Amino acid sequence: MCPARAERTVTIMWMGDAEKVYDTGFMHMLMRNPGGGVSLFNIDLIENDGPGAGFSEKGTSFDAILGKIHARKILILDDPRAHGAWIVAFPKRQGKSHLEFTINGHHSRVENWVSNVKNRAENCWNPFPSEWLRKGENIIYFFCPAAATEQEG
Prior knowledge:
The chain is mainly beta. The chain contains two helices and eight strands, in the order ααββββββββ.
């Protein structure tokens, strides 16, 4: 530090509660911790197909996933390192059969699929091991082999 500026240096300390700062303050990338306190935001949405899905002026805007009808997503990652990973889906309708998926050959299913009593979910998600991800192309398949009709899928 320049000696001429040293005399103009001011140190300010505030002994406030971190959650009060969160509630009343303004900072980009700050989040409330579930166990109390605050931390820097630690979640990144890697890819969002939502803006291009759900409405079409030219006709149907969705395809049912059932039986042998699958959906495929290719997710390209520059860096696959993560503490955790989730698949999040926003279905047009929720059938009786679970939505299943594979990521690079690893199989899982959305466990909270049938938890909605109205048989309609706003979103469904499932955590999966982040080790399933790799640098470059990650191939994700969605399927519902137990469904025989659109209402079940």
